[in-house]
Design brief:
The chain is mostly helical. 56% of the residues lie in helices and 0% in strands.
Amino acid sequence: MRFRCAGNYEEPLQHLISGFPGGSAGLALLLLRVVFGSLLLVQGGFYLRELDSSPETLLLGLAAVAVRGMLIVGFLIPVMSALVALGGTGVGFSLLANSTPPLFHEGLPAMLAGTVLLAIALLGPGAFSVDALVFGRRKIIIPPSVSPRRE
């Protein structure tokens, strides 16, 4: 079965490629990443300054600080969003150690953080990110098909 593409062949196939919005939408995504990353930095700092810190607590603090850096620069946003969601779920269900004071353990802050994280994950990193530089939009040119001539 052959598929034919109608219209201008030089237009990018934007429906198949994730968007990296620029302009005000890209700035809004950058702002969301910076604010959420800053919250992760504070949460990671709470984990790292615990007096009776176990190896699990130190690992969670280091992971929160590392993921924060990747979120702010916009590197591997879907993977980082999944890691933060798994960590938040683990802390929420008391499977992982919680820091003192807990930022995201209560219902409303956890719901707000989850909503911001979901928005970042679904909208993508935006044009002002490392992902946009590495995996950004590409122009796909589909040449017209040449059918064999019948003689």
